[in-house]
Amino acid sequence: MVSYHAWQRLPQGSRMSQRIAFVANPTVEAQGACAELVRRYGDAPIERADVVVALGGDGFMLRTLHQPFARGVPVYGMKLGRVGFLMNQYRAEDLRERLAAAQPATLHPLAMHATDTAGTTHAALAFNEVSLLRQTNQAAHLEVALNGAVKLAELVCDGILVSTPAGSTAYNLSAHGPILPLDANVLALTPISPFRPRRWRGAILPAATAVRIRVCDPHARPVSATADFLEVRDVAEVEIAEAREHPVTLLFDPDHRLEQRILDEQFVL
Known about the structure:
about 270 residues, alpha+beta, Rossmann fold, Tumour Suppressor Smad4, 6-stranded antiparallel sheet, 7 helices, 17 strands
């Protein structure tokens, strides 16, 4: 197995002979494409692969990145789903040539530690965002602290999220948060339907910022916390920080680089 750092140093000729493992969404389309690619290129065991090709949409890619193997081997996605921001276009031909020419993008996830009202702490990683949402018809009342200092004593809202640059074009953008360049070394702190303070629209934070969000009345106004697709109900406090010790590397075709796609997204009307 070649590490993602070693992949960047390999000459293209060596990349052409790398062992490929395929993972696919359970849809008929993705499974059929996987069978065709395995027929053409073989299928190395995950533990011996030098690159993983993921077939599906962005949701399937997120689940793939959460697998332990993704922290030691680059992942190249091909779109066979509804959304494919993190994917390359699907094509069965010339896969080895595309992998040899692919450009890496390193992502650093967020680490969430959510403590529920029973005192249990739940840990999870998020490559897109960590979001907090009210569980009932009542607005959430949240205290927001950065690096131990309280910045908002009471934010009345539907919720709040912390987004990575890679996730800034997803839920964060729908909540009117900023699009962040991939190499900006910052995070987006974005409120969801804020009621008070009315004029607060969020903040851009240095990536090293430790965010703590406390639910002011977790029993009367319950709140859930979600890291990508893992949800914790009835949280009392959530701590969020960048987990630079858990990087993953995605591979993109040169004309389909993630940095350029994030930039272009800012000009979509």
